Amino acid sequence: MGKRKIFIVIPAYNEAKVIDKVISDIRKEGFKNIVVVDDGSNDDTKKVASKAKAKVLSHFINRGKGAAVKTGLEYAKLEKADIVVTIDGDGQHNPKDIKRMIKKIDEGCDIVLGSRFLNKKNKMPLFNRLANHLANIIVFLTYNLWVSDSQSGFRAYTRRALEKIDTRLDRYEFDSEVIREIAKHKIKFCETPIDVFYTQYSISKTQKQSLKNGIKTLIKIIIS
What we know:
Layout (H helix, E strand, L loop, with lengths): L5 E7 L6 H10 L4 E7 L5 H7 L3 E5 L5 H14 L4 E4 L10 H10 L4 E5 L10 H18 L11 E4 H6 L8 H13 L3 E5 L6 H4 L2 H4 L1 H13 L1
Parallel strand pairs: 1-2, 1-4, 2-3, 5-7
Antiparallel strand pairs: 4-6, 5-6
Helix pairs in contact: 5-10
């Protein structure tokens, strides 16, 4: 990866069971600047992440995934990061895909969106597939920009892109707000296929699977 400062930001809420492995797998890929943002967890996420020697930032209360990502991005900017990659803390993503994202940045993209739908090997549960397709349509109709996986949290940003992005919402709407900012500022972006691992643990994460939360997210996208 050369001499560039690359930071990996992991938003985490009650991920004590898996966060150690997530950090370890990222470190195995050669990345040392790993930032875990503990979003008001009521388990040992912070303790486990600290023991795994990640930089841990904490919210005293649960503010939402978007808020956690923004905290991590702001920290990385203060640390003069050249590239920042955001990856979920539940173990769904494959850290081996990080280098593919950085290669896309080397090819001229300022934001790289990881797409579960561009990887035909992924077997997404039907509910998730339908919900994500609906979100893609809403995002397109709202921002006039089509992307194949508007709700993916696995992304890479250059420092130049981060200086332009201005988001306001704190929960899962954040991912869609980034699409708005890409369209608004005409930021050069690209998509790349990513692996996704649906385990019993990740599927059980109710804050991600709730239909009620999904509807709330779509409404906020439309009115934001």
